[in-house]
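Homework help board

Subject: predicted structure for assignment chain

Our instructor gave us this sequence and asked us to write out the predicted structure in token form, then describe one feature. I got the tokens but I'm not sure how to describe them. Can anyone check?
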Amino acid sequence: MPSPHAPAGVLAFGYVAPNVTPRARLDMAQFWIEIGLAARLEIIVTETPSYAALTRELLEEHVDFAWLPPIPFVALERRQGAVPLVSHHRSGSSHFQSVLITHKASAIEKATDVAGTRAGWVDPHSASGYVLPRIELAALGIDPKTAFATERFYRSHEGVVRAVLERRAEFGGTWIGRDRDGAIVRAPWQEMIGAEAIRIVQTFGDIPSDTIAARPGLAVADAEAVRHALIATSKDFPDLVRDIFGVDEFTPWAAEGYDMLRNSTMQASDRGLIEGNEKGDRSSGRLAPR
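My token output:
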């Protein structure tokens, strides 16, 4: 794993990689070599196990750039801890949607059926895989603080899908991307074995795109050079960008959708809906095996 502390004169990009494969690690390193060449900077890659860890790395200036989903970005922005550079655009859109999924053999037919079942979430900082589903379920009359038999964090969208496919979770929160006609063109289960067994229970609203951001103290010239390099490189190497980030291109950062997300998460936090706690089997009082 690359060192989390870059040598003097070298910049660092950080991202969350709990289960990164050797091929994915190589692709990410190659991508940032290309960005460094285009920006005339030396950039290394740092992996972190969680968004909480990545947030600390950015705040403590151990990384200079970071790949941030909406919730970590909003949290950092509130502390003036991140400057957005580019938005991730999927299928011509900067937005994606949160969904609840279940196994096609499940008795769950609608969102309100999830009460009393085993929940699978991505991460406490995942908008589509935790925060928005809990907000929306609360709006439907399901109290996410008490409704579920168990709750687990699987640390990736693919992990949630696998848990649902293997029946370790009865439902899970994740994301989909649609084209302009509304057809699903991206989902974390598309290339997984057994994907045909996944069924969407509920689709929630649009979520702003992920962001690549810089730490506030970074030299403006370096931040701008990287921003321009990201936009240009996504056009020159679209297949690499699609494989690594699951997007079609990088575009100048857009604030669209973030105001609503900020307000929703603040209200949910005040109500204790997104505390980020796992919950074990009530009958045993212990966390069930992952």
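Reply (TA_rk): Your tokens look well-formed. For the description, you could write something like this. The helical segments are 22-39, 51-59, 70-78, 127-139, 157-165, 220-236, 238-245, 258-270. That's the kind of observation they're looking for.
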